[in-house]
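step: validate -> pass
step: tokenize input -> pass
step: predict -> running
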Amino acid sequence: MTENEIGKIIVDCSYKVHTRLGPGLLESAYQECLVFELKKEGLAVQKETGLPLIYDEIKLDCGYRIDILVESKVIVEVKAVEAMNEVYLAQILTYLKLSGCRLGFLINFNVSLIKNGIRRVVNNLNS
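step: predict -> pass
step: emit ->
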């Protein structure tokens, strides 16, 4: 399955979760429900996956955690915030770089229309 095929499923599942729950809940609630929906679709999903930093050939555990890793190819960062800011974009770009993944999604469930809360992020540096 390609990153884009996985991405379509992620977006569809995000719509489903947001339609059922709406805005206003904690990030952890949306994360759990999205993981549940993605697994129902038959995808391999890892939650709160540790992401080490390799520095000078030494593996360092700096506490980086990917919210959701789908099929070991696509990163999903779940947010439930008033407004997205550039720090979240920098975070997912860092995760994409460190993991070697090319596609990620920033999904803010604290919006009235989920289409306004989904941001697709591509890291072309790894290609």
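step: describe -> The longest strand covers residues 58-70.
step: cleanup -> pass
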